[in-house]
Amino acid sequence: MSxxxxxxxxxMVRRGFLTGAAAVTGAALTGTAPAGPAHAAAATPANSAGSxxxxxxxxxxxxxxxxxxxxxxxxxxxxxxxxxVAPSARTRLRPGTRTVDLTGKYxxxxxxxAHTHSDGPETVVPPLYALAGVTTVREMRGEPVHxxxxxxxxxxxxxxxRWVVGSPIVDGAPSLWAAxxxxxxxxxxxxxxxxxxxxxxREGADFVKVYSRLSREAYFAIADEARRQGIPHxxxxxxxxxxxxxxxxxxxxxxxxxxxxxxxxxxEEEIRRGLAAVRIDPRDPSSLSRYHSWFQQVHPLEWRAxxxxxxxxxxxxxxxxxAHGTAVVPTLSVHRTLELPDAVxxxxxxxxxxxxxxxxxxxxxxxxxxxxxxxxxxxxxxxIFAHRLRLVGELHSAGVRLxxxxxxxxxxxxxxxxxxxxxxxxxxxxxxxxxxLRAATRDAARTLGLPAVGTVAxxxxxxxxVLDADPLHDIRNTRRIHGIVVDGRWIPPRERRLLLAAVEAxxxxxxxxxxxxxxxxxxxxxxx
Length: 528
Description:
By secondary structure, the protein is an alpha/beta fold.
């Protein structure tokens, strides 16, 4: 690769298994910090598109639309936008255009992570997403810190992805989340539900995040008020609502595969009665304990659903989802972690970007969640996961839009890096590498309501990923990152290495949590 003139909080630390990057207050990445590897991220201007046009030449473009790869192309970016995409042999660059020769490389859109619960220091979490090739993130439990990060990124004071920020979780009463996790909005009736929608819109949320324990009355009031207020609603399909009903009233994305398992079974009526009998103890102060209780009651119902899978019912439901434009974010990564614990790796290179004390706590916490299963239970859960994979393939075949999301914020899922594993799981579910990439680029952008993101096209955002190997040959090649363009800023290999070293140093300096710090995360994918 050559580069030359051309043209001629913060907050509480996540504890327990439901863990993301440790939370500390970090200084913004400005140009005033001391030099050296530990401060490389701070010493380099963040998300700056630079001055003048920049041309990436002689590269194979995989544009995210599903079109065949286009070799020998030039992509010009300026002011954070793609200004030209054309064959290098026919491209004349303006005088003063900087060029980067990418002969032998592959250029794809920046990846989109549609289901995260991000928490940790801003010197770790936001830059880690971007440096792993994830240039857009959808935050599924929005808090003030996420709005702060987004504003700093927009100002160029922080390296990080575009951020779509949801509301706090809006759930029934009692919620699956207790007070130990931070703000959750509990609603008991239609009036409270409508007030909640108006409140989260005033607070700046991009969407209303709905949850599992909402009553039918509250859920349909949220859907109606969200439509009136012009704000999407999405998230879990509540236990009280059929997924086809949710889709018909505008539920934009269904998160995880729990509701789909139940709705595609010939035993649905029996399962619905079982769901109506599920109880959560409002006196329980622990979110983890509440989730355990919910899963203990729901797991037999999921197994019953798998036993009664009905292809005709599934076909009818999936056609309905496709017709209504409802997308699905399967989050296979978190399902795999908690349903196939024996397959969880004992180490991974990217773990060094999180605090060692956090990583070292994962095995015991995973054992606490999954240990004690009988051989029969283990076999059932393995079969449930295999069924989830088949269901994802059927969703895709039926034309239901899929978007990539991981539930990052739970154990073993490192911000940004986890999405590459999600792509591999989509391929394992039957998608081609090109189709999996589309779920992480164009289709995810459409799902998030970002029409100028997710494809390599003139006028679109200059969020790009340069790879050393062809991802259409092997989807795992998305990990072979050569360089990244984040909002028009080119981060070449050496700079990326320095920035990752800065993240590693910041993680190493993050202290363990104080006793009594609150539990964070989603926990949506597990079984006790």
